[in-house]
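Researcher: Sit down with what I've pasted below and flag anything odd:
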Amino acid sequence: MTTFAKPVLTISQLEKNLPKQKDALQRLYLIDELANHYVYTNIRRAQELLADQLCILQKTDNPDFELSYHLNTATIENQLYNYAKAENHFIKAIDLLEERGAAKQLADAYIDYAGTCMNLEKMDDASEYLEKASRLLRNFPDERLTARITCREGYMHLHYSNYSKAIELLLEADKNLTRLQTSLQLKDHYFLTLIHSGLGRVYERNDDDEKSVRAYLKVVNMCEAMGMRSRLSWHYLNVGNGYMAMVDYENAECYFKKAIDIADDSSQQARASAYANMGYCALEKEEYQKAIELFDLAERLYKEKSEQDFFNFSNIELWRGRLYVELEDYSRAMEHFMQAFQYAHNIEDFKQLSNVCKEIASLYAEVEDFKNAYEYQVVHSRMEEQYLEQLEKRKQIELEIKYEAEKKRQETELLRLQATKLQLKALRAQMNPHFMYNALNSIQNYITSNEITFAAKYLAKFANLMRQSLDYSDLEIISLEKEIKFLEDYLYINEKLRFEGQLKYEIIVDDDIEEDILGVPTMIVQPYVENAIEHGLRTKKDGVVKVTFSLLDDDNILCVVEDNGIGREKARQIRQQDPNYQNHRSRGTNITEKRLQILHHSKSQNVFVKTIDLTNARTKEPRGTRVEIQIPIVDIQLK
């Protein structure tokens, strides 16, 4: 994407300049700068600005600001829990980036979209996009983006209740982000709040309430310091819940009030939970009238959000029942317990059903109805057993999911390692010694013949080719442009030095291919070109090699290497008589074909290289060989 000149202005200066600016492009720039800040600090203001930006974009075609619009809108919709809308905007942004974006921009978008995928319970998609981002960063390392990936991976493990791995990854992400220190961006602080929220949740699930509160307080302090209010209600609520678990009702109420008072339209669910939990604190402190009012407020807010929130409705009814037991109004207490039971039954919440039955049994025992007390105690035991079975089944499913995820990760890593090893083998097998010896001998002849200009020219070409070969051996992916340049240098040296003008070559690239931004596996074509020269053209005086590149489909390039050589059968006969050339193909192209098999990740297709014997239509005599190579386009945008 093009880069717009950006003077450093404060948010207040940008706001001050915006009403005065009439130029569409300048106005788009100001809105973009403000929106980038407000998506984390003031969602309502960000929405106003993005609505203005959309109006301008409908009249002005500007892909750069269109990209920013979709990314910022996706972030806002994600913050507002509108995950389907967020996904729609992320997909549009990613389409733009994959068409014309830089690698790090694309990796950043993949990381953000993975977060929305997790919110949509699309864990496989989340894993896929994090892997795509990781692949990009292997070629374009970025500590900041790597830390964000690690954070998302921590949440993946948190989702599967793999708490030990989640803690490990979240702490690693925290260490790597805080190492940036002076260059931390607002978005980095947002990720730090995610990291410590995740840690707080892990500690909470492990009943380590003190650590949980400390982690959540760290999030609250960051949000207050940076003005990030979009999720602050939830963060206050988390701190309050921690204090409530520690039976510190004063501090709990303090943070529940903060959760209620903050002006954040997206936090109605958090406010409802804060009212309900304040009601529980009031109940424990024997402030019964206050508790009743708070439960009523919470229920109304829950119902405004959803009439099907049976989990929270059941909790409120259970607490109301306990309240009326304390007031010795047993008939009303029983009504609320029965309603709590019904809500829990609607969602098969066996843990809650067990708790409610225990309360009902205690109530019957209190009024000396021991028959009903016994019956509900039996139901309580049965519900508890079902809850334990449900828990075991859930753990089993989680273990299976973790196993499959780890298996998939290991398989992917193994394939990557295999591809890397094969790449190194292929590079070792390349550059046939005859090619190098002949090239150096030719250069030596120029030197001894005192043709210094030619010697210097060809020596520089040869040295550059060797340097490229070594440089590329450390890379998994290069641009198609670099792959073609390498082939040109290789063929040029063959033409001028080894065959002394008796070899001609041609490289043709289809107009639809943007070779500077398409990524391909490193040095994937050279073994086939060398094979054509060694076996097809080595004995000819008028050899021609033609290499063409065209788009096969959206995911693959078709490379065709064609020669006018002696054909495979005659070459086979020569190899049998000349042991020096007997194993050349098996070392070069066979390894490359294994690389292609791994890089394509294909289960339905096994052949990615097709070799065709060319013959004279009339005499049936061989007139060369054609090799068609299906090369995967790698998810990379080299800029």
User: Anything to note?
Assistant: The domain at 430-632 is CATH 3.30.565.10 (Heat Shock Protein 90).
